[in-house]
Amino acid sequence: MIEPRVLVVGDVIDDVLVRPSGPIRFGTDTPSTIARLAGGSAANTACWIAASGVAATVVATVHHEDVARHAALLERAGVAPELAGADEPTGTIVVLSDGGERTMLTSRGANVLTGPDAVRPELLGAHTLLHLTGHVVTGPDRDAGWRDLFALAARLRVPVSVDPGSVGLLAEYGARRFRSLIAGCDLLLPSREEAGILTGESDPERAALALAEHHRTVVVKCGAAGAVAVSDGRVIVTPAAPSTPVDVTGAGDAFAGALLASLARGVPLVGALDSAAERAAEAVGILGARPA
Asked: φ, ψ for residue 137 (rounded to 5)?
């Protein structure tokens, strides 16, 4: 049996996590707890894949002075880094978190430079699953290149999964264009809000069924309401695991990482969803977006 290994393509970010002590007082000071942590949806997902016992590689771009730092952090988490250096600054997100919700102020920085050409054929061929975050595919117009990458993955028999990653990016990029770009990918992992934008359906089950017309498996992440999956016409509803929220940043990445790790090992979808829910509950109980 081939050892599972997931190739994750997307973003590496420096998170500035801000937790105000109370309501933000505009125009003056608000006492807050501020932490600087490594993040980025792709990097976070890769770390949760590794924490779930499956090898992972992350492809991303950071400022050239930050390559060694971010590579070391990924390696410490058990992830193989494939990081390119650039003159543009490393992407940064200011995350305003009150424990149960978060608002993000984003500078994508060098992440916009990561394109399909960053995935060398020999690198893709060394992995058993390709996962992309919407943060890279909704960047500059490289649609033809991404389609070529998906076609290469199909020829190499490497399944492809996509996490749209951001309601804001989807709205800017265009729902119809995004659906056309990723049509046929094996697994789609939108949030409830992202699924709504992509389909116009507010009900997650109806949205999942609509998306499943173009993907073998769709899993709609619904936060505290769990998840709704559709695979080969079968609807699976998974409740969220019990948790005490500390910081919800990265909960969706934890869910995705654990799900991908389980599926890469051949775990049936129901069991994979249960493991994903448990990891998401773990993630909301800690500060930051990566495993403690």
From this structure: -75, -20
